[in-house]
Amino acid sequence: MPKRDRLKAMLRKITDQQFNAIWKDAYGYVPFGDRADLVADFVAEQYDGELDGDIERAESFLHPAPRLKPNRWLAPR
What we know:
The chain has 77 residues and is an all-alpha fold. The chain is 65% helix and 0% strand.
């Protein structure tokens, strides 16, 4: 249950667009309805193996990778 609870908490923190992207990736369509109900339904229907991937994706939305600085050094000619 800790994985399911963790995923529920993360899905409640991300934006609606990000949640819709995760849902559409899993089911192929965008849901309609109350967000809290959709989160509970989504987490309940996932297999244990799918939870890890969904947790990683939600974490990537919450903690995006740092942007790299462009390399402004030019080689001498």
